[in-house]
């Protein structure tokens, strides 16, 4: 009776080709416009970051006050040692001390700061919670977030297992 096959129309292939071309062209135009918008946004962000960087570089660096030496810094830190929860992280004596400099991110002066607040072993560092990390950062006057970025807890856990 009726044949409903659209491919039986004489110019069906031409119509399909035109629709494919139009769809491809529209897809290209939409992709191009969205890409241009992303480029403009990233260029704006870059310009903003460049301005912030220039502002930071123009800000004069304030020299440290004279008369502040390592001993006074360690005494100031030692005075705040009682703020830590040693029941959670554990107590240790200087005689039990591990070489905390084995933890990436801990240098000699930072190790002395940790010793000043009673942190001597990998086990103590491995027991740090988020609150302990924040408190230690505050007490030892260290860069916020650095303990987590350097993964002191994970490193200390591994070093403690190897002992």
Give structural notes.
The protein is about 60% helix and about 0% strand. The protein contains eight helices and no strands. It folds into two domains: about 5-60; about 70-160, no CATH class. It has about 160 residues and is mainly alpha-helical. The model has no long low-confidence stretch (mean pLDDT about 85). About 15% of the residues are buried. The chain is elongated and about 95 Å long.
In short:
The chain is mainly alpha-helical. The protein has helices at residues 12-58, 70-79, 86-89, 108-116, 122-126, 130-139, 146-149, 152-162. Helix 2 packs parallel to helix 4.
Number of domains: 2
How many distinct helices?
8
Described by the principal axes of the CA atoms, the overall outline is elongated
Query: Whole-number average pLDDT?
Result: 87
The oligomeric state of the chains shown is single chain
Helix and strand element order: HHHHHHHH
Q: Indicate the low-confidence ranges by residue numbers.
A: none
Largest sheet: none
Terminal CA distance reads 89 Å
Determine the strand fraction and express it as a percent band. under 5%
* Rg over C-alpha atoms, rounded to the nearest angstrom: 32 Å
The total count of strands amounts to 0
Q: How does the helix and strand content classify structurally?
A: mainly alpha
Keywords: Membrane, Transmembrane, Transmembrane helix
Transmembrane segments: 12-33
Protein name: DUF4332 domain-containing protein
